[in-house]
Amino acid sequence: MYADKDPGSLKVVGTPQRRVDVLEKLTGAARYTADLKLPGMLYAKVKRSPHARARIIRIDTSRAAALPGVRSIITGEELPYRVGLYIVDKYVMARGVVRHFGEAVAAVAADSIEIAQRAVDLIEVEYEVLTPVLDPVKAFDRRSPLVHPDLGEYEYVEAVFTPVPGTNIANHTKLRKGNLAKGFREADWIVEREYTNPSVQHVPMETHVAIGQWGPRDQVTLWSSAQSPFTVRNLFCHAFKLPHKNVRVIVPYVGGGFGGKAGIHLEPLVACLSRKAGGRPVRLVATREEEFSLLPCRSALTYRIKTGLRNDGRIVAQKMTMFWDAGAYADYAVNVTRASGYSASGPYEIPNAWIDAYTMYTNKPFGTAYRGFGHVEFSWGIERHMDLCARTIGMDPLEFRKVNALRPGSLTLTGERITVNTGNVTKCMEEVAKAINYGRLTAREKAREKRTGKKIGKAVAALHKAPAMPPFTSTVVILRMNEDGTVTANFSLSEIGQGTYTSVAQVIAERLKFPMEKIRVCLDTDTEHDPYDWQTVASKGLVLTGNAAILAAEDLLRRAYGTAGQILRAHPRDLDHDDEKVFLRHHPDRSVTFREMAVGYAYPDGNGIGGQIVGVGRYIAQGLSNLNKETGQGHPALDWTYGAHGIIVEVDPETGEYNVLKVASAFDVGKAINPECVRGQAVGGMLQGLGTAVCEGYMYDTEGHLLNPSFTDNKVPTAMDLPEEVESIAVETPQIDGPYGARGVGEHPMIAVCGALGNAIQNAVGADLTHMPMRQEDVWRALRKKTSINHFITRCGFGCKR
Amino acid sequence: MLPNVRKFYRPTSLEEAVALLNSEKERNVVLGGGTQLALSAHPGIEGLIDLGGLGLDKIERRGEEIVIGARARPSDLFRSELLRDVADNILAEAAGNYLAEVQRNRASIGGILISCAAWADIAAALLAIGGRITIAGKDGEKTMTVDEFYEAGPSKAAHRAIITELRIRAGGRGAYQRLAKTETDISILSSLVRLDEETDGTIREARVVIGGATALPVRVREVEEKLRGKRLDPALAEEASRDCPIETVGDFRASADYRRKMAAVLTKRALAALAK
User: Fold this and answer.
1) Which active-site residues of A does the annotation give?
2) Minimal Cα–Cα distance from B43 to chain A, Å?
3) Which of A184, A307, A314, A442 is the most buried (most CB within 10 A)?
């Protein structure tokens, strides 16, 4: 919508407006869920399983119940409610068996956190420990124990997913394009390798927090740090068989989500505790340690790629097999598998493709959505693999990428035709290549190598991603004019740091021709007062809500013109507006202000017309379809955002240490509605990507205990770890059906950073790595051709707490 | 959470603190900075003895020695002007790498010595600098060298006793090299060196310490021997550190093999920095 607007005519869109939430967040005025204190509120603590897989023999809560100040205790036995996004496979709390380390087996609500913790310590649980399923590839073996023997009985979204009962396969996504065998026959080379990465944690600054109050007549109110209030309500109602009108979800300020808060998590637990405590509100604040195992993580991936190449550099066939480690519950992992299953080749055209993507149940903390939704993980393999392919035929890796890049006329894996307005991945690659002086070392860099004894390497990697969402995803924006002519906007995305609320306010201001300060976007969300949105995920917020905002603004103008036409005795067609007034085009001095009409226009004698000016904009994704379950063909993509990273790294061959000197990132955002928000996403996502490439990752012992649920042993990068130089570039190929031509760019900065870094390290010193994170020792071992160390499951030495 | 703590003591004299620690009636433990106790759920602990009232948090110069009170925090060490005169400030630098700002502002140097985590470079730095530790027990005060302290094992050396202060010699030159995943990471391995030289540059005493290789920091006597009585130049730095024959342990942070090889590399770099 308005993708063809002359940029010179835009007043607010395209300018670096200050974020609408910045002052509240910087001064501490913003109130988060954990800041709320309700009258009579109780505090909850959870008893967690110390085992990865065990039968619960007995839970004795009698000593805990006897503790003064304890108001309610719940165990799985009394909660026959299953929840699940796509496969309904998870009880609110473990019943009969525990399926992962850290799973909730009992919970307590008490007058204080201390009493609740004391009570949790007094609960005795007797387990029969069973051998856990830990390796997602071994879980594939028909002889493997089953994590979910009842898989065949679970409800699931049948149009989209394919669980295989009697196995550990929660979902099998298939994609078949062209003729694979023929493609391989035409190949001069066949390049095959496996790439792996472990689970990682989202690490939002605010941990998961929920307050639940189960009121009279089954009226339930939930305050939550959730990303998706309507999805919480929907799944909650489904689990407890309550009408939607009974359940209200309120989301105040949220301190980051990154996908970890996209689904439903602690809300059923606090609601059940509240119900048992006679309706008193109950609050549960997850500890940082609980974030690592009570709450979900990002799935690990084992990715096998077999590529057929011609001597001229064209990829002619590619077979891709993914084993996603879902952990104990399917949650989002099945959909991560699906979304990855249709973009698994990266932004390259593969004429003959074959994908089998499996979501494997294991006895580990479960995987959920995480910024990039599978793309960061498979991109690691693809981008490393593209370099291996290029090296095999002696071609420059950037040139190789350009030869195979998706371009107008190309068909994606699902058979969608790329057009000029889809975006330009080649341009993104060229921009970052220029920014890092790709292909050579500058005089300064050569001098630096000489001075330090370290080696400098460079690489470019490319990426793409479309929103992973149901084809019928919709949203609504409601605009209400206040008495003074200012406008209040309601819509239900959670502002989790991405800046969409600011950008949507800019879109509204632009379309209304109002100054930004006249627009108020309501940052907190309340399902009782705000209109529907599916979720705050998938980098779809700006595109869908931005379009709805344009439609709402136009609806509001229509109402205003209707009233103004009566006042000015003119046909609405002859009206125009600006400067907060509606006027006659032919006689601009004859006008009426929006303020005068805001809640109804009153003539001098008191007689009124109109009424409050309200605009409603509804937008639903267009032209999308489910994918054929056998071939994977169809139209899943609202839009494709392309991008590329260029990395300069300096590697110490003696120790394997490395230092990222520069990252240049370019994304084809269509239109940067707010260039500062784009840059914020680009830099933040890039650093988050570097974290997973360099130092993050879950480690387990052979019994499935998580060894590093802390910031001591699971490092995340800080500002001190930023590359010496960061450059962010916006390419703008307008998306015709995006608001003012814009596309989403929330997740993309995190994708392909890992592959680019791995390739740059290899170009610097020759270390050939197939597992991330790439620790110093991994680089050192690769250089000395020593076997790498298994990162998933390890033995525990000194210094570890367990 | 310590479930059975009933009493909180804040003694005003060391004797009182030691008596409480040796009480037969109840199991009391010392509360220094509390960063370790905060993680403990030991059911046997009944009382806490807060050392905050004993004035043990000073860092001061006494003649040729710098005296560090046992309750001084890593952040105090990090900022101390006095420590700059000791082996080129390596103790303060190591203190700056102790966990995160929150812990640096709370933990006590005495507590760090007692728990002596392998990754705590601050403990390795103390061994490299050398010095004496004063410990108050029920039989009065005793002092021992840092070397003796580690040899006995920290918990044994200070059994039912309270570390009151550390005395370290000013002067000397020092170097510190470490391996870590990120800037704020604790060390995977570290090498710390102190050299005391005659006016003509001849090395009178060399202390070369590896931290993170095993549970306690260790001195690498073989390297020290090669340095003593000689003048350090790049060739000697290379020669002396060619082999670092120490025992190393593997864990999920790094393998024993890698640690062993890196011990030599880091030591070479530390000595090379001093040879410039």
Assistant:
1) 747
2) 11
3) A307
